[in-house]
């Protein structure tokens, strides 16, 4: 159905009706489950209900919106109203990392974590001002489409395809990882099984209906995820600030938190624990300085201890303990070094809590300025990366008009803002709750949620009585960032159904982002690579079929890579943004705002930006083992801070050195600059 | 096609609007971060240290407002210069 059977306004009205019913239905489902819990439904069953009901729902929407029409498949028929496109973009944008990880990062790093909050919202200003309306006027199907038309030639398109696939693939691996984690947590299924259950949901939806199905599923997913995020925060807010919109009142909680932090810093028992860690760290460092000698000495010491206990006829349990120490002693120097390094790392736990609101902590002025530079680096790369990630830019092809594209960016940011301005609030409330209720409680009567989570996964929460006084000190607690969102319902004392809801929200966030990314990858391959570069005579049916087949391939490859559990996922995500900022942003924006930007300018500029970015990451990121000194102390995640300016300058210089673009290209630039030109005969919109 | 003087004027005004909003964006992002320490120690707002407030809430709200203002101004400008897309409904 490439031509709408009814008018846009009837369509809009129906949409509102459907989604109002849907939201109401979802709330009834929640209340029904809450009632069932009261009547004794088990936790595992609540988990299953959430998992299968939500995935079934998304798959159902996918089935109802299946299509084989090209325009429907690639750009949802270009009739998604701005508000709904905003919600879909919000879900597309907010990944598992935003939903589950963000509040935890803020909990752990205070003000410094706000770099991510700013970076992941402010980028939409750049999208609105420099890209969305112009790309919408151009109106093809993918981002490489625009680069190829504007700069002419297959080299540019090919480079665009490579960049789009690289950024998206790196990002989608992180999402599928999140899906597996949440599903296995929700239902107790194995990680690998969780990955494939989630993947099935993604595939039914994205494969059957392409962009059309993905859009309408993402709207549904946004509704689930925002309800899931807000519910516990509102409760926690009422508990600590007395009002249900704690976002505006947690400033005072933040002040109280500052007082608690001061008290903890000065508390003698806390200092005692920190001293223990400082001593252990110092001992570890000393041992590392002379490994062979320390190893022999340490071994002799435990053996001697055992011998003297045996000689003195000590009680059996003391001897058993000493025997255990001899057995547990590292088998060789290398193993011992690993252990000492871990001990030396305890230095971090010897430090008093850092004031939550303090900006750029550091020992001296220089360290503080480096911290500030790195904050700026993250904000810069995340913002310009936002304005370059193809799965987001593609969404603005789906609105009915240029004007709607502009308002759509507005609604996108409103939808994203709701979650991102709540995350710092959640972090402060959870921290205050933990510092006042958990710290200082006795080990014999830990709050139920704390003992439960410490049992589930020690990497999320571990509490060990270091100084053996039976009281919990802050320095004795180790928290994994992901705990904050997952455990908030229990911290706030809410029924288990809310925990299930939060997990369902995390799942919605991960699935929706994975949907959009996989679609971008498949479209880049099927549309740009196969149809435009290899076989321009392919029929529309063949193109859509191929895109669906490639989607399945991309999903399976991504799931396979995920199952290898590649290391630092946050670095990968950050790297995807830096790469996007260095490669796409300069040539897209200069292509619109500067008519003189030429083909070779774009090619050399893209290569230079990407090159410097990759070079800085490879030579500086510890994973690659080269570890050259940092420039200005800037961490390799923010390599885009060098890549983007280099790319812009290169485009500028090379464009002046090479011939100006043809008259047709200049007319194309004029064409995209005006929403509607009377007498303009150029039609670029793909159908 | 040949653009008229009016078209060029539309584009110039568009650039002015874009530049002003971009400048505001820059101030509430990078200038704010640059002076975060000074802002934090200078005053509190609703109980928040000022830089914390902006990074966690204020700048975000300004981003939303900037995009909203851009959409409204451009809608008006489109109509004024006759380059709007007409009533689509």
Notes on the protein architecture:
The complex is a heterodimer of chains A (687) and B (89). With 687 residues, chain A is mostly helical. Chain A has 26 helices and two strands. A two-stranded antiparallel ribbon of chain A has the order 1-2. In chain A, helix 8 packs across helix 9, helix 9 crosses helix 21 and helix 10 packs across helix 18. Chain A is globular and about 100 Å long. Chain B is built from three helices and two strands, in the order H-H-E-E-H. Chain B has one domain. Helix content of chain B is 76%, strand content 4%. In chain B, strands 1-2 form a two-stranded antiparallel sheet. In chain B, strand 1 and strand 2 form a beta hairpin. Chain B is mainly α. The radius of gyration of chain B is 18 Å and the shape is elongated. The interface between A and B is large, with 64 and 49 residues.
Give the arrangement of secondary structure elements.
The complex is a heterodimer of chains A (687) and B (89).
Chain A: H1 8-38, H2 43-64, H3 70-75, H4 82-93, H5 96-109, H6 114-138, H7 143-151, H8 154-187, H9 191-240, H10 250-266, H11 268-289, H12 291-311, H13 316-328, H14 333-344, H15 365-386, H16 390-393, H17 402-420, H18 423-438, H19 448-456, E1 461-463, E2 477-479, H20 483-491, H21 496-534, H22 540-563, H23 569-593, H24 599-620, H25 640-657, H26 663-673
Antiparallel strand pairs in A: 1-2
Helix pairs in contact in A: 1-9, 1-21, 2-9, 2-21, 4-9, 4-17, 5-18, 5-20, 5-21, 6-15, 6-17, 6-26, 7-8, 8-9, 8-21, 8-22, 8-23, 9-18, 9-20, 9-21, 9-22, 10-18, 11-12, 11-14, 12-13, 15-23, 18-20, 19-20, 20-21, 21-22, 23-24, 23-25, 24-25
Chain B: H1 5-34, H2 36-42, E1 44-45, E2 48-49, H3 50-80
Antiparallel strand pairs in B: 1-2
Helix pairs in contact in B: 1-3
